[in-house]
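Table S7 (text form). Paired inputs.
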Amino acid sequence: MAVKLYHGDIVYTPSADALAVYENSYIAVDSGKVEGIYPVIPEKYKHAECIDYGRQMIIPAFSDLHVHGSQYVQRGIGMDCLLSNWLNHYTFPQEAGFKDLSYAKKCYDAFVDDMICHGTFHANVFGTIHREATDYLFRKMEEKGMYGFVGKVNMDCNSPEFLIETTEDSLRETEIYLDSHTGSGKVKPILAPRFAPTCSEKLMTGLGKLAAKYHCGVHTHLVESIWEAEEALRCFPGYHSDAEIYERAGLMDHGPSIFAHVIFPTEEDKRIMKKHGSFSVHCPDATTNIIAGIMPLAAMHDEELKIAIGSDVAGGHSIAIYKQIARAVQLSKLKEFYEPDQSQTITLTQAFYHATKEAGSVFGKVGSFEKGYQFNALVIDTMEDSWVPLTAEERLERFCYIGDDRNIRARFIDGKEIHFEN
């Protein structure tokens, strides 16, 4: 693949406290990877093809580290419930439908297309307990060129009879799923016990053995509500924290450990997560819709814990990660207002970093425009009123707050443009 140049206002976050802005510049892409950013076209590239986007922004594509593909059809429904009632009245009955593969295909086709439409090219996705449906989701993401982790959900207790497996069936079906994706490429399998209250100790231990055998990580919910945190320890007597359940099962030793929400972490939870380099996924919309708590993002970042952003569809009502960036800033203000001694407001730069470079690191070199990173990118229109010019920083902020998929003018995965009708 020959080197190609793209001209525009280039914006990315090399660190949580630094927004790199190269206005009126050129990004050189060689074999799908960023080679460099230049104020003028270098002599060595004077004959290279150059696509000129004028003053439009070129930004890294987004990563969603916690989303339920199976809940796509219920987004924006049941938002007046808290977690337990929302699961029992809406989510569990709806997910039972995924035993019908034709139903699952319709949902997953729409879900994957909508992620790409909104600029999410890397995603960590919950399926359901149904292996065939989850396998379809995995292959659909592969087909579209996405980066991802996809998990077949495990539930063998404290769940509705219509959405429960025996321990033996759960482990057997999970192993078939893992084995069928051995050696996969950009999309990889991950273990997905729904959360501790729905999984027996025998199931957790069995999943830990599969993690060791197939060298895969874990994706689940952790201390997402006061109810869940208390219920986890009630179901696992003798344990001292939610995270300890996964650590003792051996689920944090063989791949990434990705924990959604982490709103009420104890010091022990944080110690275990930091030890294993785990990701805590902040899901702002879900926080306000059904969970009623706010992750202490700024404090956890200061403690050097890894933080990512998730849409948590359908607990979250919007699949757009850029909306979650804005919402993360808003919620940090609320948390500082009510807990001034324990929290602080984050900047848009920090939220953008957690949704791009830090979240992207679980998939490899994606989420930034430093040399050697994959050119997984979005071109965003100027977002300006014709009579008031804005800086690139202002346009990025405006996109996160009031933009939508119509403002995404081009999409690139591994340097190849993805043509998508808005």
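Next pair, protein 2 of 2.
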Amino acid sequence: MTPEPENGASLRLPVELCEDRTGNRYLGAPVPPSAMAPWREAFRAQVGEKHARLLEDHKRTRDGAVWDELPDQRRTASPDADLEHHITLITPPELERLGDLPPQLPQTVEVELIGLGKVQDRETESWFVVAESAQAQQVRHQLGFGPHALHVTLGFTAQDIHHLPKDRSALVAAQVRGPDAGGLGETVRQSQPAAVPRVSVRGRISAGLSALQPSEQRVARFAVEEPERIVESTAQQLADLIGVSRTTVVRTCRSLGFTGYPQFRVALARESPAVSEPTDGETGLRAEARRITEGLDHAFDAVREEDVEQLVDRIVQAGRVVVVANGQSAPCAMDLSLRLTAAGRPAEFLADALAQQVSVRLLGQQDLCLAISSSGANDITLRSLQAARESSAHLVLMTSQEESPGAELTDSTLLLVPPSSSFLESLYSLSRLHYTVAVEALAQQVRLRIGLSGQQTVDVLAENIAD
């Protein structure tokens, strides 16, 4: 059935059982290119043609676009022939809990495209069209699920954002129709949306509690009653505390709309009270320096000497060494690449996220990918590690979270104990001092293993010091 616009902004879309590139099934409603054309034009007007193309390319990569398989003449005639759009009605975790779809599902749903929306989490942003459908929400209610923020994804940086609401509260440009608008010819202009209060994480948990399985409800209730304990617990620690499996903890997070436990944990941390100031009365630069360096002596308590020896051997013997990091860890990665190079072991660091993924995918069996991520859950770094897994190189992660998505992707880890005793405090301070020390110590070990005197570095410095 070909979707046709009805009553101006409304579209009647087919309801289909879909599958993404990783094999996850979901119930969706495909949106035709003709309906998306004005919204993509508004999207380009907002962010610029070049940036819009970049964000759309990231969506292509996630969706498993078949661009390379399209004939040359089709590419020329339609540069966006491979770009598809849809609205997710029932998410993969929900569909997995549901099992078989009931036969009484409607074949189509009426959807209204409301306006251009954006959510942002630090350097990551996601653009979309906010959609609303009373019929779709009614279907979800009949299947035992709570309300879901409907939207059509336009593009994103590196990875889509799933833990922030994509509803009217995220609108940046609302749809405005002229008196003669009657279909797809509507104009889109800047408009200040009505203020809609954001729903807290605990509010989202309470709203979706009834749709969870009994074991998942135990996790959700604990999060509502004692969020601070979740903030300070790993997924396994929380599972042991509640008496469920680690898989149940992760599944609960995904059922509530988060990509995993790390995102859920950080979202709860954002709503926790800010870290209190020292109460001993000491203030000033020296006091702050003592606070930052406190516990630094214990940063390497979890590091085994044999692990360091193996890592130094791999660095020295590798054909190529590529250092990967993003966000707060990026300066440490750049520092490590420079120090290794100065120590006689040339190493590469690329600041661009896409360049990182291309570079690590080309690594060979004798090469080494060394990633730095304190949380082990940085979305952009995870993409680079996933790309590195497609090579035959050895993967090492320098992290402070032994149980993390990044640790699961790598062959070995170098675990650093952060100076802060609190996960919440580490989010506020974002100190990487222990990583800076680790970088210097590791580079020094490599220099000693190679036997480089350091004279080359001294010579270069001497040549570049001005009188």
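The first strand starts at residue 5 and ends at 6.
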